Target: L-fuculose-phosphate aldolase
Amino acid sequence: MKFAEERKDLCEVTQMMFDRFNTNAAGGNISVKVTDEYLIMTPTLMSQAKFCRLKPEEILVVTKTGEKVEGEGNLTREINMHLAVYETLPQAGAVIHAHPRESMVFASLGMPLPHYCEATQKLGEVITLPFAPATSQQLADTVKAYLNKRQHDLPIATLLREHGILVIDQSLRKAYDMLERIEYNAYVAIHAKLFEALGLWKANSTQLSYNMEE
Model:
C-alpha cells in the first residue's frame, strides 16, 4: 500500500476532527501532499456514511491532476477546490475543509472572523468569501482568486459563505492545529460580542506585540 504511514495518520486526524466538533456529518474533507506527484485524500461521504471512522486503505492516493490511483471509495466532489489550492500555492502541504461549529456562525452570516486570541494572529485576515455552491467549479475558482491575493507565508484560512472553512498549511498536523486555534478563537469572539452587547466589556484599540512564531 502506497504511503501507508501517511494514510494512517490522516485517518487519526480525520476522526479527531469529527469527534471534537470541528466538522459534522454534512461533510468535510482533507488532503495532504505527500510528493510532488501525489496527494492522499479522504473519500467522499467520509462524514455522512462513516462518521470519519476511516481505515488507511480507504484513504485515496490521487495524482496532482485529480486521478485516483489507489484506495477504496470515490473521490470527493470538492477535489477541484483542493487542486486549486495546490496549483495556486505550491508551498502548501495540506488542505483541510471542515464545518466547525463555532466558526460556522461567522461563515453563515458572511462575517469576517476577528482575532481575540494570540494563537491566531499570524493568520492575518480571516474573511468570508462570496457564496458559491458546494462542490462547484465556481467555488474552486472563488478560492483560487482569493489565494492569488494572499501570496505569503502559510498558514492561510478563509471561511466559505454558508458552507464552512478552508485551512492551508505546510503539513497535516500544522493545518489541524490551526483549525483548532481558529475554532477556539471563534468561541471567544462570539462570547466577546455578547459581553459587549450586554455592556459587560468594551473593545479597545491597544496595539500589542504578538508572538507570530507560536
Residues 4-197 form a domain with the L-fuculose-1-phosphate Aldolase fold (CATH 3.40.225.10).
